[in-house]
Write a structure and sequence with these properties.
Blueprint: H1 3-24, H2 30-62
Helix pairs in contact: 1-2
């Protein structure tokens, strides 16, 4: 898995934890954390798909 995908997954997990803590304390700031988690999740999927496509291209070129 690419390093950028791992970093964005870590940001996503931390943002979800921050959202849970924020909502548990009664703060509406958790909405921002949920949005950040969504964006970082989409970024992680993008980097994973891009790495898979690059692997397929390199495997196809080698054969």
């Amino acid at each position: 898995m690419p390093r950028l995908a791992l970093c964005t997954l870590a940001v996503c997990v931390l943002a979800i934890a921050a959202a849970v803590v924020s909502f548990a304390r009664g703060s509406w700031l958790g909405i921002i954390w949920v949005l950040i988690a969504g964006i970082s999740s989409n970024m992680a999927w993008y980097y994973i798909r891009r790495a898979r496509a690059a692997d397929r291209e390199s495997a196809g070129a080698a054969s």
